[in-house]
Design a protein that fits this description.
With about 220 residues, this protein is mainly β. It is built from one helix and eight strands; from the N terminus they run H-E-E-E-E-E-E-E-E. Strand 4 (about 125-135) and strand 5 form a beta hairpin. The radius of gyration is 46 Å and the shape is elongated.
Length: about 220
């Protein structure tokens, strides 16, 4: 009986040791997870900024009032030869076409024709002008004119070439885009395309208003 008990105890002890070994193997520490390499996001290309070049062709036209003064030693009149001063007031049209090299400078060609008003005192002018411009706001520009042209007037047989100048302002219906003008504008200006101080003291003063379109 004693041997049987000893055998049972020994068997139980052996089973306990075997189970303990199995439990020890199962109780091993869980593996440390290896961090996965972060997903490489595709590089987003930097946004490209495309600036609208402030260059462009424009055309325009409108109404012009011309006041011409001529003071000469001898003035040709319908009554013969007189002395003194003669003036003429006429009305007509102005046409222009230009190109802006940038937002500060451009060039403009113009034609002025005033067939209405004082009889036989029609004025014509052709000229090419450099046009410096300053933007007061995104909708308003002021500009100057300096150039060379030819002025003809029926009375006093005026047919002269010379330098001229002017100043003006333009309101743009659309705001400028990085200095570039697009669409319609309204302008008003004063110019003096001819002034001569020699045997004939001639001065022409023009006031013009009109509309322009910038491409």
């Amino acid at each position: 009986m004693k041997k049987v008990l000893i055998s049972i105890v020994a068997t139980a002890a052996l089973a306990t040791l075997v189970n303990a070994g199995k439990n020890k193997d199962m109780a091993t520490e869980p593996p440390i997870p290896v961090p996965l390499a972060p997903e490489i996001a595709p590089k987003t290309p930097a946004p490209t900024t495309t600036s609208t070049p402030p260059l462009g062709l424009y055309i325009g036209g409108g109404f012009t009032y011309a006041h011409t003064e001529c003071e000469c030693d001898e003035l040709q009149t319908t009554d013969g030869v007189t002395t003194g001063e003669s003036t003429g007031d006429t009305y007509g049209i102005n046409l222009r076409a230009g190109y802006d090299f940038n937002q500060f400078i451009g060039v403009e060609a113009r034609y002025i024709y005033t067939p209405w008003g004082d009889e036989d005192k029609t004025l014509k002018h052709y000229g090419l002008y450099l046009k410096p411009t300053y933007g007061v706001t995104d909708n308003i520009d002021v500009y100057g004119l300096v150039g060379y042209g030819k002025t003809e007037c029926d009375y006093q047989d005026i047919d002269e070439k010379g330098f001229g100048w002017g100043v003006g302002a333009e309101y743009l219906v659309n705001k400028k885009d990085k200095g570039a003008k697009k669409g319609w504008g309204i302008y008003a200006e004063y110019s003096q395309p001819l002034r001569k101080d020699d045997d004939k003291d001639i001065k022409t003063n023009l006031g013009s208003v009109g509309v322009s379109f910038h491409y």
